[in-house]
Specification:
heterodimer; A: 263 residues; mainly alpha; MetI-like fold; 77% helix; 0% strand; B: 275 residues; 2 domains
């Protein structure tokens, strides 16, 4: 009995010290001197631009990765094709790879002397501009939808899809009426994870963006630049915005968790 | 003749199925543009000045020391996670207490919180302005703390479902045969959890090796002391030595691939046990 309580309070104490304390501190430090300074910091033109840019990048990266994720998950589960194993391995790579390495690879590919470095000469600016930041964000948030949808597709099997086909349904109808309803919660869960990662990405975007203030600065980059410029209020105010998004993410994850109430 | 006939019928089958061929082609093209081409460019750049330069860049004292520090700390953090992650998963599955749902949700915070925010608050909590008077800034202990924060969910989330599905009857049988609680854990529970613990540990290790945002502020990036590889790579980009950055990056890429292979092997092991 004593062992059980020791384990419970050990585990909970560790979580409180490692998780709750830091997150609580973000809010405390931001509103220490009232709401007004924090509000001013968040609504400064530079901060607003960073927020807008962050949301814009997510608005491009998340739908693309969702579309891609569902398509690839169906291909991986429902068809055998040459290179299937390789594709499976490559999909997982972004989870295990350092974001700095991701950023560097894009920097080398689209930079001066890179294979596609010539694009800049034709007026297509990728590095230190929005397209590069979007590419980096897509890279790091790529696996989440695929990884959530694949196990669900495996589990539901092909019986219903085959039945629909024998009854004369077109492939698109089968997808819309049979497959999509079965995987929708997994897709939602994957979208939540993708969005969180896209909004919070720091390392890859930091290298690809060139961190030009007011131009290629996302909200996480803004946090760092304000902190290093000794504007702690600005850094914490932006952090609170990001922390609120993170809390909303956690709530959404509870709602869509596979095997939870929703599925 | 045989080959072309097989290829043709296979092709027809593919085309008849859902236009699946086109969709798959687009998906694989997307994967190539986003992931494979940049990776190829990275490997190409690291070797463009010959293997000698590659090796020199990796074994440069500063790069080498950063690599050793990164691997050492990541091992430490991953091993510690095996212990704490399993304990937390155990408490969440087998224990019951008020607020359990809340605690279970909170585990995902490190996944959701941007790493730079984590780094900023950890520096405030355990840095020079620490309310507890504990200053870990610019020390290796600070890096360990940041990595423990970001890697927390991996082992918990790997072990939890396995523990939920684990058949209690086995444990009850062992207990009724007179096994002590420790013996039950060591001989029944632990062998069943091991593959899940190891995959969680491997993911945590990979994450720790590559982590950047949460570490960059608290570590102070002092060469030979608190500079980890990801920060070293970013520094080399800024000081315009892409060859050095690419060489160390390729080493990190190889580590990531090795970890993914290991995780595949653990998964295989686990599903074989299921059958």
């Amino acid at each position: 009995m004593i062992g059980r309580y020791a384990l419970r309070f050990g585990a909970l104490g560790y979580l409180a010290f490692l998780l709750l304390l830091p997150v609580g501190l973000v809010f405390y430090r931001t509103f220490e001197h009232g709401v007004a300074p924090a509000w001013d910091a968040v609504t400064s033109p530079q901060a607003l631009h960073a927020l807008w840019l962050t949301l814009l990048i997510a608005a491009v990266a998340v739908p693309l990765n969702t579309l891609f994720g569902v398509t690839l998950a169906i291909s991986l589960v429902r068809h055998r094709f040459p290179g299937c194993g390789l594709v499976n391995a490559v999909v997982d790579l972004p989870v295990a790879l350092s974001p700095v390495v991701v950023g560097l690879s894009l920097y080398l590919l689209y930079g001066t002397g890179g294979w596609l470095g010539g694009l800049a000469g034709h007026g297509i600016k990728i590095l230190f501009a929005l397209p590069g930041m979007i590419l980096a964000t897509i890279f790091v948030s790529l696996p989440f939808v695929v990884r959530e949808v694949v196990p669900v597709l495996r589990e539901i099997g092909t019986d219903q899809e085959q039945a629909a086909e024998t009854l004369g349904a077109t492939p698109f109808t089968t997808f819309r009426r049979i497959t999509l309803p079965a995987i929708r919660w997994a897709v939602c869960y994957g979208v939540v994870l993708t969005t969180a990662r896209a909004i919070g990405e720091f390392g890859a975007v930091s290298i690809v963006s060139g961190r030009i203030e007011g131009k290629t600065e996302t909200l996480p980059l803004y946090v760092q630049s304000q902190f290093e410029g000794f504007n702690t209020t600005g850094a914490f105010a932006a952090s609170v915005v990001l922390a609120l998004i993170a809390l909303a993410t956690v709530v959404a994850m509870r709602m869509f968790r596979p095997g939870g109430e929703a599925s | 003749m045989g080959i072309s006939a097989v290829a043709l019928s296979r092709r027809e089958a593919v085309l008849s199925r859902a236009g699946g061929g086109i969709a798959r082609g687009i998906a694989i093209g997307y994967l190539s543009v986003i992931v494979l081409v940049p990776m190829a460019a990275l490997v190409w750049a690291s070797r463009s000045q010959g293997m000698g330069t590659f090796w020199n860049e990796v074994t440069k004292p500063e790069a080498w020391s950063a690599l050793k520090l990164t691997l050492g700390i990541s091992f430490l953090v991953a091993a510690f996670n095996a212990l704490t992650g399993t304990a937390i998963a155990w408490v969440l599955v087998r224990d019951s207490f008020p607020g359990k749902g809340f605690v279970n949700a909170v585990i995902d915070l490190p996944f959701a919180l941007p790493t730079i925010v984590a780094g900023l608050v950890l520096l405030e909590l355990y840095g020079p302005n620490s309310p507890f008077g504990v200053n870990l800034a610019f020390q290796r202990a600070g890096i360990v703390l940041a990595l423990l924060f970001v890697t927390l969910p991996f082992v918990v989330r790997a072990v939890q479902p396995v523990l939920l599905e684990l058949d209690r009857e086995m444990e009850e049988a062992a207990e009724s045969l007179g096994a002590g609680r420790f013996a039950v854990f060591r001989r029944i529970v632990f062998p069943n959890l091991l593959p899940a613990v190891l995959s969680g540990v491997a993911l945590a290790f990979a994450r720790a090796v590559g982590e950047f945002g949460s570490v960059v502020l608290i570590s102070g990036n002092i060469p030979f002391k608190t500079e980890v590889s990801s920060v070293y790579i970013a520094g080399q980009v800024e000081s315009d030595n892409p060859a050095g950055a690419a060489a160390v990056s390729v080493v990190l890429l190889l580590i990531s691939l090795a970890v993914l292979l290991l995780i595949g092997a653990f998964r295989h092991w686990r599903t074989r046990h299921d059958r």
